[in-house]
Amino acid sequence: MANEILIVDDNPDIRNILNELISDLGYTTRIAANYQQALAEIDKKLPDVALLDVKLSNTENNEGLKLLDHIKNKNKDIPVIIISGHANIEMAVDSLRLGAFEFIQKPFDKSRLTNFINRAVEHFNLKKENKSLNEKLFNSFDIVGESKNILNIKDQIKHLANSDSRIFITGPIGSGKELVARKIHLISNRKNKPFIIINGALLNSEKYEKELFGEELIDGSIIYGALEKSTGGILLIDEVTEIPLETQSKILRVLIDQKFKRINGKHDINVNVRIICSTNKDLSNEIQIGNFREDLFHRLNVFNIKLEPLNKRVKDIPILLEYFMDKLSDIYNIRKIKINDFNFLLNYDWPGNVRELRNLVERIIILSPGQNQDKINEIIKESLTKTTPHEFNISENLSFTLREARENFEREYLSSQLKKFSGNISKTAKFVGMERSALHRKLKLLGIKEFN
Description:
Blueprint: E1 4-8, H1 12-24, E2 28-32, H2 35-44, E3 49-53, H3 63-74, E4 80-84, H4 89-97, E5 102-105, H5 110-140, H6 148-160, E6 167-170, H7 177-186, E7 195-199, H8 208-213, E8 215-216, E9 222-223, H9 226-229, E10 234-238, H10 245-257, E11 259-260, E12 269-270, E13 274-279, H11 283-288, H12 294-300, E14 303-306, H13 316-331, H14 343-347, H15 353-367, H16 373-383, H17 394-397, H18 402-420, H19 425-432, H20 436-446
Parallel strand pairs: 1-2, 1-3, 3-4, 4-5, 6-13, 6-14, 7-10, 10-13
Antiparallel strand pairs: 8-9, 11-12
């Protein structure tokens, strides 16, 4: 399908020249003769590339720059070429500052403009392809593991996917909260509708409401917020605890009334969105210290999905390693690499959780395409620089009595062996040379929790 280019110019001769030039290049065109027509075309359907004349009337207003800003608010990836017959350095700088792809002065050189248009189309297609690839890549990953926590989450997803109940996903950074939300969307009855993410932690406090509710500008143009963009689909509010209290109260009102107004808007917009929220913080603590509204929490937390940190589901580590090795080897078209020694990985604390593990596997695959285990071990040790709190440190133990030091060693040693055998008491007891009942007693004495 040919790329679509929007031509906006108040001069009919220029519009015809541009239309012929672009059509000869094999692209389709849409045309607007003034500011209002251009707004209508942009709001009806965003083009792949836009060519905007700066002055679209006899007024002093640079309406083309307003259109540039309007397009960029809708989709910053759309290349916009600014054309002007009244160009000066200040205008060129302003247009580039606002995000213009190129600036060209009338009368324009056709070959130069052709080059700009082709590069703009190539830029847009590349951005679109990369976005599509990233989406496919993300959606191609599964929720993997055999720990009780992961099996429970998979079961929850199946049961909750086709309801419209709100869900709160909690878990540490990198544990897979967004992946869980995407899997719910993927098998829900809203799967053919948008999946929109708004990240509370990445927004300036002044922009929350604009990002959520959208805005109606003085010139009549509209900036759509996340609630409208996700109509019929799912809105994931990531790190929801970062949203200011004043905005939280407005979200609560939306949930109660099922409608809202855009900023500066006069008409109600009805809501048809399933909301999923996520956070890596302790919600009860956030409520207690006054950072999060308790009434909003109860509205959002109809169902809770809790992801445990990776160091609490150690039996998933070998499974995830194998899974990521298979997946990423296919993606990079590299022969699968085998890791012979899991001990260091099993005893590492994984502060970055599953994301950190996946990044490590990706690093190994790219930097060690062969099967050199020494190189693989070197990459692992260099990548995982943080020392696990379970690592036995001789210098620290010199201040203890012999009995205390021995207990510390036994605690770290047996914890390590339990992880190595994924919590299997029989295999651990056999390896360390103890009876099962004796090992149970020793673990209890040392305060080591057994896990599934």
